[in-house]
Amino acid sequence: MAAGVGKTFRMLQEARAEAEAGRDTVIGYLEPHERPETAAQAEGLELVPRRAAAYRDDATVQEMDLPAILRRAPQLCLIDELAHTNPPGLQHEKRWQDIEDVLAAGIDVFSTVNVQHLETLNDQVAELTGVRVRETFPDSVLASADEVVMIDLTPQALIQRLRDGKVYPPERVDTALNNFFRIENLAALREVALRQVAEDVESKRIVREYVGSREDRVTTAAPQAVGERLLGLVSARPSSQRLARRAWRSAQRLGAELDLLFVKKPGARLGGEEQEQLDALRKLAATLGAHLIVEEGHDLADAAARVGALRGTTYVLIGEPRSATGLRRFGVSLPEKLLERMPGVDIRIVADRSKRRAPEVEP
Prior knowledge:
CATH class of the largest domain: Alpha Beta
Order of helices and strands: HEHEEEHEHEHHHHHEHEHEHEEEHE
Largest sheet: 5 strands, parallel
């Protein structure tokens, strides 16, 4: 749920057990954060030396040496901090992409991550904590893991660890306690993490039941979702990224494909800011594994109905209007037009949860 709960410590414990059982195990990258207890767990495990990488202002940083790991070719490699962004000039932009190369080489990987780094939880975490996380990784990386281990700790216990100097140096403790590590933030993040792991367990159970081998298949009367396909209507606004993330999580719960539809006027050229927003949506769609469709048309509902018919859409998600009167134009609202043009298709308005008001208390 947050830094300091003991992820790296637990990863090293499990790795030591694997090594003692005879498995060829190495540390590809470790970030002990100057925590003596964590560093002690790494003693006796082979460490692949880091390599220097150029950084800003002619500085260098010590980064994971991906080629050296591939040459060493252990059975199991520990790679800490999955969401890390590499400096320019290395093989990949992100560490999770390095891990994909390691897995492709037939090497198993143990890694660690905080729940706030999941791409589709980015908006939710910002709303809960007031902090926008910049380093994210695709949810598909977590979904592809053979096993996800939740390192659970109560917010009170984590705050005590922080005060005891077991998470950050003493000079950073007060700042952390007054910002990200407030007890209400940690409680919310803990709930998000528990929900995420529960959803991951459930999705893997469904896969085992329906796609497992004949010997391992479990007979169940529960019906499997069939034929669902979501269509998110996006525009050249930052709020569309929020809609795309929420739509992807809905698609995952339904076991469905996700399309994102961007409609522009016929022959229109996008301005600089609009093009930047479209490029950001295209990058986000690629990260999530969604399909971004750009269509020309004068009417959004007509374009959605046309694309929906071609793609087999069963569920449409739209964002909130810009103003209170924006939902209804020329006497007919967009949801009404969609319901008329797309019969049998569910329509959902995705709210901006950051705008939720606290309930009024009567005096």
